[in-house]
User: Fold this.
Amino acid sequence: MANILSRLGVRCKNVLRCINMANGILKFLLYDILLDALYTPVWWYTAGLAGTLRSLARAAAQGAQIIGIGIWARSVFKPMYGEYSPQGRIVSFFMRIVVLLFMTVQMGVWLGILLVLLVVWLALPVLLVWQIIRVFTLL
Assistant:
């Protein structure tokens, strides 16, 4: 063990100290790195997925707020420009409906983008493992 450490450039005067250092390194490699590698998929599909869903829900709410779809939906029956005549009410109603349809399409596109991001989040570990297996089968 001391010979291996000396080849790596580690100088120890006391052999027991070198052995303890090597045990510490092995413990770090086996426990910390290996257990973290094994725990990562569990975290990815539990706490990581919950955090991602919260972030995507927040992004969807911010998208609806930026587009202003709620304000347009609430004001669909209010006349535009203070025009209270029957013709003004009819024109403003249909105009707001057209604008609301365009905003709904915009919001649908934004939700579609967020859904694609969620699918990518779910598929990324599977694709990673598949690529690793594919690379090692080509060797």
Notes: The mean pLDDT is 86.
